[in-house]
């Protein structure tokens, strides 16, 4: 794909001293820059930027100070839903901030499609005429919530990322001129966009007289047509004058290999071994890609196997946090949210079991809560002091003196009560750190909070939020903060999700996890606003997302991946961790039928260090075990 850009530039597109290339994401940007540098060592004046970054530049040049409030979006949706819950009963289940995510997804789809309060009356009339019974009432309620959320965001000065695109679009249209009048503009790497992003792209291309290059890979089975043609239709319709770089200039991998592994870790171990051999043969690690539809199931196996074999790699997504730390952080935030109403089990889960001191603390609290019949933290701090005075320093509470126990419980009560009275996000953070220090004297939780709380305070700004809302924002922030980086900083083998690997090229690609219902994903309709209701709204909102387009998107992604390298290795695990059989992807079945010369090979298990008469790469410890197991008895 970078070769096509090279030919575009060689044809004189960049005749000036400067040029701007706009891409959809950081991953595409870094992949494109890497590919360009392999063709020329210097591209003086050529800048590659993401679409969001270009929008921020437009706002900055206009003197508009934009501060994203994306984390606050669920909180605003929750508050609006609570205001409507008396009129629409189903919102009572969705309005609490801890359960608002399904509603957030629906409202986001509507707003990203361009819905605003100006559309409300016409949209409600359309629903009344076309959709009957309870489903129509629910759709009307969702439209009213979306309109109220849009108004609440503006009233409180909260902006989402897509609001930057909307504001930048307005500026481009009202000014009627490009902010970069002397710079040629090339837009690359887009296949589908939200309605708001399409508006900005259209305005940007019109103001800059730029060019949009649309990549159409061949279908993996029928090479005479493009993969996922329907997926590109919306962008082709929205942006006039698109230059389509179609399937004539792209090709599928000249070498396809199919491999079945006994289970997931054996699959990744084999990939790591093969990559190690390729690097030893002179292939640059940066020219190798490992891609999965979703990296989450593979992150820990990649870190373990690649690190054990010394394979350098980089990834954008963090690996899941260590389970004990993640569980403790969730329990700590839940304890802060519920206060004295939190169950004792949550208090115990917030205390680490590492050293002897904290383990003794958790054990003593468990026995103490049982002795006084306490089910909540409030009952424990209320009932325990009396029993402690009666029992004194008995063996019932281990080595924890009664005086220390009473003092600890008193501090717990003070901190939990004070969390509900925090005047600001900063004040709440201080009291939460005090709770963390009380439950985790080792300081591990406090260290994680020290990284996460400033981000929460920055997103909240001067808004006044409740304790539950602040804890919700913190829990969302902690989804990533306690995670360990999966690896690297751009160098080594690229470990990517399928979405991150779009429009990137490799010398060798390993596409892992080709299981049924994983790749391709099964399209799932929005349970609140299903497709047949959305199709009615498409008269007003032609860019509203539809689940039925998911199948075309999956095929488009698969076609892109098979066209991204001359050699592609496709693999999948045959069994899950419990030994249950897994079905392979229908994409694999189609390839086997279309190309009879393809055969499925078997990856050996992790224990087979000698395979096919040759030794496999493995750490020294595994070879020591192997030697001990296979030494001749004497």
What layout of secondary structure does this protein have?
Layout: H1 2-10, E1 19-23, H2 26-39, E2 46-50, H3 51-61, H4 73-84, H5 91-94, H6 101-112, H7 120-130, H8 133-155, H9 161-175, E3 185-188, H10 195-208, E4 211-215, H11 229-238, E5 243-245, E6 255-261, H12 264-280, E7 288-292, H13 299-309, E8 313-315, E9 318-319, H14 323-338, H15 344-349, H16 356-372, H17 377-391, H18 402-419, H19 425-439, H20 444-460, H21 467-478, E10 484-485, E11 493-497, E12 508-512, H22 531-537, H23 550-562, E13 567-573, H24 586-594, E14 600-602, E15 610-611, E16 614-615, H25 620-630
Parallel strand pairs: 1-2, 1-3, 3-4, 4-5, 6-13, 6-14, 7-11, 7-12, 8-11, 12-13
Antiparallel strand pairs: 9-10, 15-16
Helix pairs in contact: 3-9, 4-6, 4-8, 6-8, 7-8, 9-10, 12-13, 14-21, 16-17, 17-18, 18-19, 19-20, 20-21
């Amino acid at each position: 794909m970078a070769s096509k850009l090279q030919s575009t530039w060689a044809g004189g597109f960049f005749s000036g001293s400067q040029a701007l290339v706009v891409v959809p994401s950081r991953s595409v940007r870094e992949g494109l820059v890497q590919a360009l540098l392999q063709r020329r060592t210097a591209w003086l004046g050529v800048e590659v930027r993401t679409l969001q970054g270009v929008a921020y530049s437009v706002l900055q040049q206009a003197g508009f100070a934009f501060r994203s409030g994306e984390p606050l979006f669920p909180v605003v949706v929750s508050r609006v839903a609570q205001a409507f819950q008396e009129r629409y009963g189903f919102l009572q289940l969705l309005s609490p901030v801890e359960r608002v995510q399904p509603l957030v997804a629906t409202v986001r789809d509507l707003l990203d499609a361009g819905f605003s309060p100006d559309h409300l009356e016409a949209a409600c009339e359309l629903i009344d005429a076309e959709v009957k019974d309870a489903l129509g009432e629910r759709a009307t309620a969702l439209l009213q919530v979306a309109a109220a959320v849009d108004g609440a965001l503006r009233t409180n000065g909260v902006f989402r990322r897509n609001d930057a695109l909307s504001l930048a679009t307005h500026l481009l249209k009202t000014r009627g001129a490009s902010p970069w009048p002397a710079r040629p503009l090339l837009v690359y790497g887009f296949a589908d966009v939200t309605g708001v992003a399409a508006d900005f792209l259209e305005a940007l291309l019109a103001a800059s007289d730029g060019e949009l290059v649309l990549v159409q890979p061949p279908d993996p089975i029928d090479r005479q047509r493009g993969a996922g043609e329907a997926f590109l239709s919306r962008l082709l319709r929205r942006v006039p004058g698109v230059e389509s770089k179609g399937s004539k200039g792209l090709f599928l991998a000249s070498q396809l290999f199919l491999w079945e592994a006994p289970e997931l870790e054996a699959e990744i171990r084999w990939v790591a071994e093969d990559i190690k051999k390729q690097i030893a043969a002179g292939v640059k690690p940066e020219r190798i890609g490992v891609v999965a539809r979703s990296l989450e199931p593979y992150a820990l196996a990649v870190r373990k196997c690649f690190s054990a074999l010394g394979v350098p790699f980089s990834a954008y997504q963090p690996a899941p946090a260590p389970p004990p730390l993640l569980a403790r952080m969730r329990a700590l935030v839940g304890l802060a949210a519920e206060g004295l109403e939190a169950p004792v089990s949550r208090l115990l889960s917030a205390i680490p079991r590492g050293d002897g001191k904290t383990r003794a603390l958790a054990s003593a609290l468990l026995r103490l809560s049982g002795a006084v019949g306490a089910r909540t933290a409030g009952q424990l701090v209320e009932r325990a002091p009396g029993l402690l005075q009666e029992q004194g320093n008995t063996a019932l509470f281990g080595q924890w003196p009664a005086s220390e126990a009473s003092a600890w419980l008193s501090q717990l009560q003070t901190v939990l009560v004070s969390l509900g009275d925090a005047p600001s996000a900063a004040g709440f953070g201080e009291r939460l750190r005090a709770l963390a220090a009380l439950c985790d004297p080792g300081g591990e939780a406090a260290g994680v909070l020290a990284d996460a709380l400033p981000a929460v305070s920055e997103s909240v700004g001067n808004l006044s939020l409740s304790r539950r809302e602040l804890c919700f924002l913190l829990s969302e922030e902690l989804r990533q903060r306690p995670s360990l980086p999966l690896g690297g900083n751009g160098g080594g083998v690229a470990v990517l999700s399928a979405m991150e690997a779009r429009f990137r090229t490799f010398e060798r690609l390993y596409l892992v996890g080709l299981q049924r219902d994983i790749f391709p994903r099964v399209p799932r309709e929005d349970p609140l606003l299903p497709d047949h209701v959305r199709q009615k709204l498409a008269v007003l909102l032609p860019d509203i997302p539809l689940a039925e387009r998911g199948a075309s998107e999956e095929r488009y992604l698969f076609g892109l991946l098979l066209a991204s390298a001359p050699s592609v290795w496709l693999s999948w695990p045959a069994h899950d961790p419990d030994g249950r059989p897994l079905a392979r992807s229908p994409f694999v079945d189609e390839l086997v039928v279309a190309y009879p010369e393809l055969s499925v090979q078997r990856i050996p298990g992790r224990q087979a260090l000698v395979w096919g008469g040759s030794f496999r790469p493995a750490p020294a410890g595994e070879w020591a075990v192997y030697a001990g197991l296979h030494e001749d008895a004497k």
